[in-house]
Amino acid sequence: MFNYFTDIIVFIFLGFAIIYPFFLWITPLKKIDSGFYRFNLGMCCVVGALGVAAFHFLDPSLIINIYVWIWFGAFMIVTALYWNSTNINNMVITAISLFGVGTMIGIVTDIVHEEFLNGVWFIVLLGSSITAAVFFAMILGHWYLNVIALPINLLKKATMSLWGLLIIRSIWDIVYLSTNTIVDTFGISHSLWMFMFQFDGFLLAVAFFMGNIVPITLNFFIWRTLNLQATQSATGLLYVSIVSILFGDLLFKYYLLQYGFLV
Fold first, then answer.
1. Residues 19, 71 contacting (CB under 8 angstroms)
2. Residues forming a β-bridge with 183
3. What is the pTM of this model?
4. Within 10 A of 77 (CB to CB), how many other CB atoms are there?
């Protein structure tokens, strides 16, 4: 796994920083204070900077490197302009993030072997969306301690977004694991479900459990606590969900890079 450590860091950090701003549409500025935007944009800049730094260790192509710096520079400029502003335009932030999505597809092309390229960009972006969604929901949950009378439906929308993304990945993973095989060193073909019971596939089973089953189950309890207006309890459960999702995503990306599994 450590052979792919830098690649995994690039996928997780850059993917997070690029996808995260899309979730700001859940919390329009008129329903929340500008400090929420300032914190989130600043956080994306820090995480993005770490991802950009890690990307340079991979010796990227010049073209992709230029695209990465254009995205990061534009995002830093917008963050600086909006830092003390009360007039923030989500369309501008989204436009930069859309450019970032295209850049992320280029990064995937630069890192992953061509034979796996057809679907790998989808699974990388989906994983980044899930990671961004759970962090966004957790941070939003904390904001209920700072802002009086913040509508509960904002956190419910964030939770539903996370739930939807998790369900999409779970369905994708079940179909993919059921329809694909792996050939071992003896030339014997095994289904990927059976591969999970082998030594090399055990962590794939852990990834499926921690990355899909656990957070979906936690989301059920998060939703129940939100119906009781218990935002602090829901935020605590989101912390657990973050650990589970990050652990699962780390293992999923290892199997993507090591075996080419699109999970």
1. no
2. 189
3. 0.94
4. 11
What CA–CA distance (Å, rounded) separates 263 from 248? 10
Tokens describing residue 12: 């997780």
pLDDT over 70 at 10, yes or no = yes
Q: What DSSP line would sit under 2-45, residue for residue? A: GGGHHHHHHHHHHHHHHHGGGGGGGS-GGGS-HHHHHHHHHHHH
Q: What is the mean pLDDT of the chain?
A: 91
- HEC profile of 156-202: HHHHHHHHHHHHHHHHHHHHHHHHCEEECCCCCEEEHHHHCCCCCCH
Query: Which of 141, 134, 132 has its CA nearest to residue 21?
Result: 132
Which of 32, 217, 22 minimizes the C-alpha distance to 133?
22
Q: What angle do CA 109, 58, 119 make, to 5 degrees?
A: 20
